[in-house]
Amino acid sequence: MSWMRTLPAALVVCVLVLTGIASCGSDDARKQENNAVSPSPVGKVLDDTDEDGRHYREVDGEDAPEVDIEVQPDTDDSWDVRLTVQNFRFSPDGTKPKAVEGRGLVYLFVDGTLVSRLRTPDCRIPGELVPRGTHTVTARLYADDGTVWAVDGDPIQSAADITASGAEASPQTSSTPSASKSPSDLSAPATLVRTGGRASPDRGGKAS
Question: What is the arithmetic mean of pLDDT over 64-87?
Answer without folding.
Answer: 96
